[in-house]
Amino acid sequence: MNDKHEEWLKQADYDMGTADALFRSGRYFYAVFMCHLAIEKALKGLYVEVLDSTPPKTHNLLYLLDKIGKKPGHALEKFMTKLNTASVATRYPDDLEKIQAAYTEDITKDMITNSKEVLAWVKTQFST
């Protein structure tokens, strides 16, 4: 087994903590961006473990899931599709006021909660 997956997971946890900090500061759409980044890194860690290969330079969560060959339950996969879509809008917002209106406190809180559930699921997929 390649221990590089541990670094990916450490960074995923750190990024999830950053999402929490951004949420507490009211920087909601950036919190959502960090949720995506955390899940992306966790999946890349799983990619390293499962395929014993360097993960591709992609931000597409669904692509990574497909390559890894593991699927979460329907609800988590549906959420990951939503988070995958949010990545582009939060990474490259066209209009600051519009993106701020789209990611309210309640929506962002839900995104963080679901992201933590995905992160927990990813961690269960590692061999012990």
The CATH class assignment is: Mainly Alpha
Counting helices, strands and paired strands, the structural category is mainly alpha
Poorly predicted runs: none
Overall number of domains: 1
Second rung of CATH, namely the architecture: Up-down Bundle
Cα-atom radius of gyration: 14 Å
Mean pLDDT: 94
Q: Approximately how much beta-strand content do the residues carry?
A: under 5%
Indicate the overall shape. globular
State the distance separating the first and last CA atoms. 10 Å
Helix percentage range? over 70%
CATH superfamily: Nucleotidyltransferases  domain 2
What does this protein look like?
This protein is mainly α. It has a single domain (4-124), classed as Nucleotidyltransferases  domain 2 (Four Helix Bundle (Hemerythrin (Met), subunit A), Up-down Bundle). It has helices spanning 4-24, 28-51, 61-68, 74-91, 96-102, 105-124. The longest helix is centred in the N-terminal third of the chain and has 24 residues, at 28-51. The mean pLDDT is 94.
Give the tags.
6 helices, mainly alpha, globular, Four Helix Bundle (Hemerythrin (Met), subunit A), 128 residues, single chain, 77% helix
